[in-house]
Amino acid sequence: MGKVIAASIALPVVAAILISMVLAAITCLIHEERSIYLVLMEGDAHAFRQEPSMDQHSSTMHINSEASKTHEHLVSSHDLFLQSTLDTGSYNKLHSYKHIINGFSVHTTPSQAERLRSGAGIKLVEKDRGVKMMTTYTPDFLSLPKGIWAQEGGEKNAGDGVVIGFVDSGINPFHPSFAYDPMLPFTSNLSRFEAACMTGPLFPPSSCNGKILAARYFSAGAQAATTLDASKDILSPFDADGHGSHVASIAAGNAGVPVVVNGFCYGKASGMAPRARIAVYKAVYPSVGTLADVIAAIDHAVLDGVDILSLSVGPKEPPQDTLTFLNIFDISLLFARKAGVLVVQAAGNQGPASSSVVSFSPWSVGVAATTTNRKYPSSLLLGNGSILNGVGLSGPSFGNGSVWHKLVLAKDAVKIKGTSPKTQEYIEECQHPEDLDPKIVLGSIIICTFSAGFYNGTSTLGGIINTVKALGMEGFVLIANPSYGDYIAEPMPFAFSGILIPRVDDAKVILQYCEEQTKRNEKGTATEFGALAAVGEGRLASFTGRSPIVSRFSSRGPDIIDIKKNLADVLKPDILAPGHQIWAAWSPMSASEPLLKGDSFALLSGTSMSTPHVAGIAALIKQHNPLWTPSMIASAISTTSSKYDNLGEPIMAEGLEVNSLFPATPFEYGSGFVNPNRAVDPGLVLSSEYADFISFLCSLPDIDTGAVAAATGEQCNHPFANPFSLNLPSVTVSALRGSVSVQRTLMNVGNTTETYLASVMPPNGTNVCLYPTWFTLTPQGVQDLEIQFSVVQPMQNFTFGEIVLTGNLNHIVRITLSVLALSV
C-alpha cells in the first residue's frame, strides 16, 4: 500500500518536473534572439549549364524533367533535414538553394544553429552578414561611340544578344532607359534564356517588355530580418530605392535618353551596352538586405541563363570564421562561374584604407572606382566683388528679378522670443526652420556651417533644403567650419539656388565679409544685415583636369585570405572604371534618399557605379566574341587596360586628406583603367577554369583540404605548388624569398599568326627573367611563359612592375606584377 501511495505521489512530481523542463526549454528558445543562417550541404545541385568552350556556341543547356525532379528532391531533403534536426517551431526555412549549390537559409536561434553544424551531411553553417549597396558622359569618356559601338553597327546594336543579370534593389520599369522601341525590335535568338516575370505592386506584366527580359524578387531573408515597411519595401521587382535602376542603366540603359532634373537637361544618357537585355533579381530592400536573399537571387540568375552577373551589392564585412574564398557567398560565385557566367563585383567603398576590398576571389572581377574629367563648377559672388568656387547643381539666383540677395549667417537669424532652439549646438547647421526668424531670412541666402552634426550624422543636406523651402529663402551656402577643416563636397541637384563651399580658406573670406557688413547691438545681436551675395550657374559641366584619378572611397588591396588579413596571392581590385559622379536612371519614389524624391535621374558615386560599367563592357566583348569563356573576357579586360591618365602620366589616387593625391599602385587600380576598344581584340588571353580554381584553393598556405572539400565538394587531388600558379592575367607574390618560378599560359585569340616580343619592368628589389623572350603563335595556338623572380634586396612593402608582350600586329598585352620581396 505504501509503495502504491509513493508511486501516486511521485508521478505528479515527475510530470511537474518534465513540464517545467519543457517550459524552460521553450522559454529559452523564446528569449534567444533569432538570426539568419546560411547552410551548405553535401551533394551537388545538378548543373544544367556548363562553362562554354571554343567549340561550343551556347553556354546553356535547357533544364530537363530529370533535373527538375532533382531540384524538387533537394527541396524535400532540406525540409526533412530541418524537421528531423531542429525543434518544431524553432525555425523558419527561407530559401532552398538548388541550382548552383545545395543548401538553404534558415531563420533560427544560435542553439538550434549549433545543432545544424553537427548534423549529418552538413558542410558549412554561416551566420548571415547582411549586405549593403556599394553606391551620360562615360560612353564618350571611354571612346565607345567611335570604337567598339561602331564595330558592332552603332549604339542601336551594341550589346545585342547578351543578357546581363542585376542582383540589386530591383528596377523602375517605367523609366525611358528601359523602354522597348517597337520600331527597333530585338532580333537575337535568346531561346537559351529561361525568362520569368514575377509581378506585383507597381510591377504589372507589361514591365517585362523585351528590354527587361525577366524579373524576380526575393524577400524571405528580408522579412525574417526585420518588419518590412509596406510603403517602401515593395514586394515585387519594382525598385523603390533607385540604386538598382541606376546600375542597370549604366550597363545596359537605352541610348540617347535625355537626363532632365528640375527642368534642366544635363545631356543624354546611354548604357555601355545599350542593346543588351536586362534580367532583374531584386534582393535588397530600403529597410534591409540579407545574404540569404542575395544568394537565392544568384542561384536563380544562373538557372535562368544570364551571360553576365553584375553585383553592386555585397557583404557588409569579411567572413568571421572561414577563409574569404570559402564562405558560402563566394562559393556561390564560384559555381556561377563554373556554369559559364562572368561575375563582375564591386570592390567596395571603404577606401582609402588598405586591404578593404570585399571582392576577394579570383573567379570574380572586382571593380574599383575612378573620376572622369567632367566637373560641375559653381561660384558664389559677394557684394565686395570676391568670387569663391564651390559645387552645386542649381541655377543662378535671380529671385524677384534681382541678382543680389541678403546674405545671413544662420546663427544671426535665431528667434529671440519664444521657445529656445531645438538643437542650440547645431543651430548654425540650418536643420530646424522653427528655430529661425522668418522675417530675417525671407528671400535671403542663408549661410549654414558644416559642423559637428554633419560629422556625427545627425544633420543632413536634406535638413537644410527643408529649412530653405519652409521659410521662403532664395537659397543657401554650406561653408566649411574652420574648427573642423575642409569637407568633401559632391554635386547634388537643387530646385533653388544652393552652393557647397568646402574649403576653410573660402569660408573665412565669407565670414569676414558678413561680419564687416553686419551691425550688432551691445549684446552682440545682429540688427542690420548689409552683406549681399549671388549664386552663379552650377549646372554646366566643364571637361578639364587630370583623369582618371582613383576615388577616395574606392576600396584598396592587397587581397586577404582571412579576417586576420593574411595576404593572398591574388591581385585585387582587378580593374578600374568610372564610378564618380555618374548620371543614370533613378526611381522617383527614392525611398532611401529623400533629396532625390521625384527625380528620374541621379548623379551618384561609388564602386556600385563602376561595376556596371565593366559589366556592360563585358557584354560588348561577349557580343563580339560569343565563344569566349568568362576567363577570356576577364583576361582581355585586364591585359589591355592602361596605367596612365589623360595627361600621359601615371594614374594618381585620392588620399585621406581632402585634395590630396599620391601615385596609385595596382592595389588601387588593379591592372589599370579599362579600355573597351582594345579589350575586344586583346591578341592573347590567359584562361583559368573551374578545375584551376579548385587547385588554387588546395594550394593556399596551411589549407585544410577538408574545408575545400566541404565548401566545393571537390577533393584536393591536383593542388598547385603555390597559389600564384593560378593562370591569372597578373602575378601577385605576397612573400617572395630567394627565387621562384611562375608560369603563365597564353592563347592567341586573333585571326592570324603573330609574333610577340616579351619584356619586363621588374618590381623594385627583384630580378625577373622571362623564357622565352619571343614566340610566334598561330590562331588558337598556346604558349607557356616562364617567369623567374629573384630577391635582390628585401623590401618593407610591395613593389610593382609589369610584363609587356608586344605583337608585330600591334597587339600589346600587359601582365601586372605585385611582389613583396623578403629576406630568406
TrEMBL record:
<feature type="active site" description="Charge relay system">
    <location>
        <position position="168"/>
    </location>
</feature>
<feature type="domain" description="Peptidase S8/S53">
    <location>
        <begin position="159"/>
        <end position="647"/>
    </location>
</feature>
<dbReference type="GO" id="GO:0005576">
    <property type="term" value="C:extracellular region"/>
</dbReference>
<dbReference type="InterPro" id="IPR036852">
    <property type="entry name" value="Peptidase_S8/S53_dom_sf"/>
</dbReference>
<dbReference type="InterPro" id="IPR045051">
    <property type="entry name" value="SBT"/>
</dbReference>
<keyword id="KW-0378">Hydrolase</keyword>
<keyword id="KW-0720">Serine protease</keyword>
<dbReference type="Pfam" id="PF00082">
    <property type="entry name" value="Peptidase_S8"/>
</dbReference>
<keyword id="KW-0732">Signal</keyword>
<dbReference type="InterPro" id="IPR034197">
    <property type="entry name" value="Peptidases_S8_3"/>
</dbReference>
<dbReference type="InterPro" id="IPR022398">
    <property type="entry name" value="Peptidase_S8_His-AS"/>
</dbReference>
<feature type="active site" description="Charge relay system">
    <location>
        <position position="243"/>
    </location>
</feature>
<dbReference type="InterPro" id="IPR015500">
    <property type="entry name" value="Peptidase_S8_subtilisin-rel"/>
</dbReference>
<dbReference type="InterPro" id="IPR000209">
    <property type="entry name" value="Peptidase_S8/S53_dom"/>
</dbReference>
<dbReference type="InterPro" id="IPR010259">
    <property type="entry name" value="S8pro/Inhibitor_I9"/>
</dbReference>
<dbReference type="InterPro" id="IPR037045">
    <property type="entry name" value="S8pro/Inhibitor_I9_sf"/>
</dbReference>
<dbReference type="InterPro" id="IPR023828">
    <property type="entry name" value="Peptidase_S8_Ser-AS"/>
</dbReference>
<keyword id="KW-0645">Protease</keyword>
<feature type="active site" description="Charge relay system">
    <location>
        <position position="608"/>
    </location>
</feature>
<dbReference type="Pfam" id="PF17766">
    <property type="entry name" value="fn3_6"/>
</dbReference>
<dbReference type="GO" id="GO:0006508">
    <property type="term" value="P:proteolysis"/>
</dbReference>
<dbReference type="InterPro" id="IPR023827">
    <property type="entry name" value="Peptidase_S8_Asp-AS"/>
</dbReference>
<dbReference type="GO" id="GO:0004252">
    <property type="term" value="F:serine-type endopeptidase activity"/>
</dbReference>
<keyword id="KW-0964">Secreted</keyword>
<feature type="domain" description="Subtilisin-like protease fibronectin type-III">
    <location>
        <begin position="726"/>
        <end position="819"/>
    </location>
</feature>
<dbReference type="Pfam" id="PF05922">
    <property type="entry name" value="Inhibitor_I9"/>
</dbReference>
<comment type="similarity">
    <text>Belongs to the peptidase S8 family.</text>
</comment>
<protein>
    <recommendedName>
        <fullName>Subtilisin-like protease SBT2.4</fullName>
    </recommendedName>
</protein>
<keyword id="KW-0325">Glycoprotein</keyword>
<feature type="domain" description="Inhibitor I9">
    <location>
        <begin position="65"/>
        <end position="133"/>
    </location>
</feature>
<dbReference type="InterPro" id="IPR041469">
    <property type="entry name" value="Subtilisin-like_FN3"/>
</dbReference>
